[in-house]
Amino acid sequence: VVGSADIICTTTNTTTPLFDGSWVKPGCHLNGVGSYTSNMEEISSEFISTRCQVVIDTPEAINVGDLKGISDESENYVGLLGDILAGNAHLINHGKRKRANG
Predict the structure, then answer these.
(1) Going by C-beta distance under 8 Å and a sequence separation of 6 or more, which residues neighbour residue 77?
(2) Which of 31, 37, 47, 100 has the most other CB atoms within 10 Å of its CB?
(3) Exposure of 30 by Cβ count < 10 A (0-12 exposed, 13-18 middle, 19+ buried)?
């Protein structure tokens, strides 16, 4: 199921990834919302740091769960969802980060 999904949503409090990142097809949208402490990890941190564009809802989200290996200097970090909606940040295009203001 994971390998054919266009969208995957996870909403658990697990401490181990729910699936192998190699199963996820390119272009799939992942929405992980359950990892809110440092020991939780619904989606592999390694997978997130190597194959995902990271958009967060709050600045604190980058310090816990699946995202604990990401920083605001990471190549795949896009920014806050609110900044994208306001036009101040943009999704990465062909591996290059684009920001509207800077």
Answers:
(1) 54, 62, 70, 71, 97
(2) 47
(3) buried
- The distance from CA 36 to its chain's CA centroid, rounded to whole angstroms, is 13
pLDDT value of position 24? 95
* Spatial separation of the C-alpha atoms in residues 9 and 52, rounded to whole Å: 14
Position 17 scores a pLDDT of 94
- β-pairing verdict for 89-93 and 77-80: unpaired
Strands (E), 1-102: 7-10, 29-32, 54-56, 77-80, 89-93, 96-99
The stretches in the chain having pLDDT less than 70 are 93-102
Q: Which two tokens stand for residue 56?
A: 């967060």
| SS3 (DSSP) at 54 | strand
Residue type, 72: D
Tell me the chain's radius of gyration from C-alpha atoms. 13
